Amino acid sequence: MQYRSFGKTGLNVSVLGFGGSEIGEQGVSQKVAGSILGGALDAGINVIDTAECYADSEALIGKAIGHRRGDYHLFTKCGHVTGALDHLRYHEWDPRLIAKSIDTSLKNLRTDHVDLLQLHSCSEVRLRQGDVIRAVEEAKRAGKTRFIGYSGDSDDAICALESGAFDALQISVSIADQESIERVLPIARERGLGVIAKRPVANAVWMRTRVASSDYSREYWDRLKALEFDFLGAADAFASALRFTLGVPGVHTAIVGTSKPVRIASNAEIASSDALSEEQFEAIRARWREVAKPDWLGQE
Fold first, then answer.
1. Rounded distance, CA 76 to CA 53, Å?
2. What is the model's pLDDT at position 25?
3. How many angstroms separate the Cα of 118 from the Cα of each of 124, 167, 193?
């Protein structure tokens, strides 16, 4: 596994991280989750990223690898809330709710702190009010997180970066989502933030025979139909897509989730292999510049 210094945080992170949404939202059993997460750590993956709103993801992670807390950097998100906190009837971005959700996350994850606490898709308008930023800053002062980050895209992400409050940024970067490469990532690099690429393989949507209009991945499906990348017909298309994202300047780690234990080893192998050639990388960028429409913004 390859590792990179995670911006000004100084954390040494694996270029491949594990995204916890799928194990929570696809109803993975505790046994399977344990196999996936244990395999990820054994493969050298040391970034585990989740969120309070990913169904049972945090609890699955805490039970599966809480006893190995020293083996990984633990990232979670706050802001969106579900389930047990619904009865509080606070507004989603109420600082009181954020504080309670952080404590819930720590309990679920079986730890007294996370390494990175991220505001989850908070809008520019809400960010500018300042109270949600103060809520995560308070968590940092209380020792509940080592660093604070923002997870989001486009103008919202730019606002977060310009606030100067954050240590890290999680943002969409993939062959089907390249807006951030020119608009946002240069600002993150200038400010020394650690950068996490979310959805780095565009949900591998090209592998599907059809996608419903209501499906979350439909936007990527439509974009890839227009982009017509030749390499997507090859057996190693998934590897090429992941290598593209890992080759984007400023990206430190790319989080890939799975509900299948067998995928962990193959994903780790891809992340440990050679990068795309400069020619291959630039061909993907050139095609995007040729085809992308003005409304092809980063997908939350």
1. 10
2. 87
3. 15, 10, 13
Fold of 3-291: TIM Barrel (3.20.20)
Q: Give the alpha-carbon dihedral of 208, 56, 126, 123, to 10 degrees.
A: -10
**DSSP character for 15?**
S
Cβ-Cβ contacts under 8 Å for 277 (sequence gap 6 or more): none
114 beta partners: 145
**Which one, of 201, 253, 256, 189, lies nearest residue 229 by Cα?**
201
46 φ/ψ sector (left φ>0, alpha ψ -120 to 50, else beta):
alpha
**144 phi and psi, to 5 degrees?**
-80, -15
Q: Report the C-alpha gap between 79 and 36 in whole angstroms.
A: 27
Average pLDDT on 81-90 reads 57
User: 156 burial class (0-12, 13-18, 19+ CB within 10 angstroms)?
Assistant: buried
pLDDT band for position 210 (50/70/90)?
confident
133 vs 84, residue with greater confidence: 133
The SS3 of residue 268 is helix
| Residues counted in the chain | 300
Domain assignments of the chain as residue spans, ordered by start: 3-291
Q: What is the pLDDT of residue 299?
A: 83
∠ at Cα 17 (13, 22), nearest 5°? 160
Residue 267 burial (CB count, 10 A): 23
Which of 209-213, 216-220, 282-286 has the weakest average pLDDT? 209-213
pLDDT tens digit sequence for 150-188: 999 999 999 999 999 999 999 999 999 999 999 999 999
Q: Give the C-alpha separation, 3 to 126, whole Å.
A: 34
pTM: 0.94
